[in-house]
Design brief:
With 313 residues, the protein is of the alpha/beta class. The chain has 9 helices and 15 strands. The radius of gyration is 23 Å and the shape is elongated.
Length: 313
C-alpha cells in the first residue's frame, strides 16, 4: 500500500510528560485534533485548570476534545477520519471501537522498555524497584494494558543521582525523538513489529498513599530508591511526633548502628541526620515538615537539637 504523506493525526495525552511529544508532532505534521482529560479543580478555591496538553492545543488552534470517557467522542473521531492516533500518557485504556478507526492503527509512546513496567507509573517504579536502565517504547495499542506489539525502543541508564523528576524530563525528550524517528516508517508501512515476551512482564501500578510511607524495616538501598523514585512527586514521608514529614533526598552511610531500633534517629551530621534502617544508617538531607516548605535537613536540625533517639514511624 502507498505511503501516507500528509497524515491526519489525532493525539491523545494529558500531563507535562506528553508536551514535548505533541510539540514535536506539531512542528512536523498536521495534528487534526487533541484529546485530553477534562479540566480538574486546583488549589483551595477549586478553580478548574486545563491539562498541559490542552494548553498546547489551544496555543496552536487545534481542536481539543475532553471526554470523561473516550466512548463519548467515538463519532467525532470517525468524522475526523484519522490515518493514525498517537497517544502518550493519556490516562485511559482505549476501547476496541476507537482502536479500529485509524488506517495505520493507534500508536503509544510508553515510558519503559516493554514488557517491563507496564502500567501508569513506569518512571517512578523504574527507580523504586531498582532498575539500572529504562527507556521509551513506541508500540501498537491493543485492548490490554501496554501489551501491544513493539515498533521501536531506546534506552537510558538510571544513575545513582536520578530522581523521578530528572528521569521524567529525560524520557519525555527521548519519547519525542523516538516517535519522530519511527513515524516515517509507519507512514511508509515499512516498520517492523515485535510481540512482547509475556515471560518478562513486570508492572508499574499507579502510586498509592501506602507506597509513599517509608518502612524502616527495609534496607537503606530500598529506602534510597523509594525517596528518589518519589521525588519530586508525590514524595516519600515519615511520621515524626505523629506529624507527616516528607523526605526529598538522602545519602547512604557506612554506619551499622546495630544497637539502634529501626526508624531511630541515630546521629546529626553537617548535611542532615541519620536514621536506622534494617541494615544500617541512611542520612536524610532534604526534608519538608508538616505545613512548611522544603528545606535542607541541617536547617531543621538547628531548631531541633533533641532529635537523637526519636523514632520515625
Amino acid at each position: 500500500m502507498a505511503e501516507i504523506k500528509n497524515p491526519h493525526i489525532v493525539f491523545m495525552g494529558t500531563p507535562d510528560f506528553s508536551v514535548p511529544v505533541l510539540e514535536g508532532l506539531i512542528q512536523n505534521y498536521e495534528v487534526k485534533a487533541v484529546v485530553t482529560q477534562p479540566d480538574k479543580p486546583f488549589g483551595r478555591k477549586g478553580e478548574l485548570r486545563p491539562s498541559p496538553i490542552k494548553e498546547v492545543a489551544l496555543k496552536n488552534n487545534i481542536l481539543c476534545l475532553q471526554p470523561h470517557k473516550v466512548k463519548e467522542i467515538i463519532e467525532e473521531i470517525k468524522n475526523i477520519s484519522p490515518d493514525i492516533i498517537i497517544t502518550c500518557a493519556y490516562g485511559q485504556i482505549l476501547p476496541k471501537e476507537l482502536l479500529d478507526i485509524p488506517k495505520l492503527g493507534c500508536i503509544n509512546v510508553h515510558a519503559s522498555l516493554l514488557p517491563k513496567l507496564r502500567g501508569g507509573a513506569p518512571i517512578h517504579h523504574a527507580i523504586i524497584d531498582g532498575y539500572d536502565k529504562t527507556g521509551i517504547t513506541v508500540m501498537y495499542m491493543a485492548e490490554g494494558m501496554d501489551d501491544g506489539d513493539i515498533i521501536s525502543t531506546c534506552e537510558t541508564k538510571i544513575t545513582d543521582t536520578d530522581t523521578a523528576s530528572t528521569l521524567h524530563d529525560r524520557l519525555s525528550e527521548m519519547g519525542k525523538n523516538l516517535l519522530l524517528e519511527t513515524l516515517p516508517s509507519i507512514l511508509q508501512r515499512t516498520n517492523k513489529r515485535f510481540k512482547q515476551n509475556e515471560n518478562e512482564v513486570t508492572y508499574a501500578h499507579v502510586i498509592k498513599r501506602e507506597d509513599e510511607k517509608i518502612d524502616f524495616n527495609k534496607s537503606k538501598i530500598e529506602i534510597n530508591h523509594q525517596i528518589r523514585g518519589l521525588n519530586s512527586f508525590p514524595g516519600a514521608y515519615v511520621l515524626l511526633d505523629d506529624k507527616i514529614m516528607k523526605v526529598w533526598s538522602c545519602r547512604l552511610s557506612d554506619q551499622k548502628c546495630s544497637k539502634a531500633k529501626n526508624g531511630e534517629i541515630t546521629a546529626l551530621y553537617k548535611d542532615g541526620f541519620g536514621v536506622k534502617a534494617a541494615d544500617g544508617e541512611i542520612i536524610f538531607t532534604e526534608i519538608q515538615p508538616a505545613g512548611k516548605s522544603k528545606m535542607p535537613a541541617l536547617n531543621f536540625i538547628n531548631g531541633h537539637q533533641d532529635l537523637i533517639g526519636k523514632i520515625l514511624k
